[in-house]
Model the fold of this input.
Amino acid sequence: VQLQASGGGLVQAGGSLRLSCAVSGGTFRIGTVGWVRQAPGKERETVASIPWRGGIGHYPDSVKDRFTITRDNAKNTVYLQMDSLKPEDTAVYYCAADPRRRVGVVYSADYDYWGQGTMVTVSS
Done:
């Protein structure tokens, strides 16, 4: 399974960005997809998880009501819509996949497949 993230960039606080993740190479192996971020000097944090087929997205309190994860199975693509961005959202964002279908926010260590990351910088 390969994942290719894109869409990062520089945005002012209060702005929006949409990240995309193209998934290829055996999507039948995927149970759950998600987005994980890592800020400098901080641990990885899952910001959104969703089952690959069916189900709804789940978010930690830090991004709830601001971030929305969706997936288009016909295009094998996962999206992360980020609104009302804050400087503390600055991080490298990775898309990731887990062979097991899970409900809830998936801990970052549970993901088996990872994309290369895309940088999001939010200026104050």
